[in-house]
Amino acid sequence: MRPIIEFCTNNMHHGTDKLMKQLEANLDYDVIEYGCLGNCGECYMFPYALVNGEIVVAANVDELQQRIDHKLKEIEAMFDLLGE
Fold it and tell me: What highest taxon heads this organism's lineage (predicted)?
């Protein structure tokens, strides 16, 4: 199963647009941009994304990328354990 990474259009002022484009280039991920994800507090304050429905927040875009990568590795490890 391909991980789903969701971004909020309103969060692009933090620089998440560049990260979203970078992740879209990887065909192993489903990357979706929404007008609003309903996390207005996080959206206003920090760069964030949803990875398989779980919120991933960071102080800056570089840290967000690292946290998304970490979350994707966790998901991959879980599927490896389950044999899927």
Answer: Bacteria
Element spanning 57, H or E: strand 54-57
Q: How many helices (H) and strands (E) does the chain have?
A: 3, 4
Say how far apart CA 35 and CA 69 lie, in whole Å: 23
Percent of the chain exceeding pLDDT 90 equals 86
Alpha-carbon gap, residue 25 to 22, rounded angstroms: 5
Which of 58, 76, 75 is closest to 67 using CA atoms? 58
DSSP 35: S
Give which of 62, 68, 66 is closest to 6, Cα–Cα.
Answer: 68
Instruction: Give the angle 52-36-44 at the CA atoms, nearest 5°.
Output: 100
Q: How many CA atoms lie within 13 A of 42 on its CB side?
A: 18
Instruction: Report the predicted TM-score, pTM, of the whole model to 2 decimal places.
Output: 0.92
Q: What is the largest CA-CA distance in the chain?
A: 40
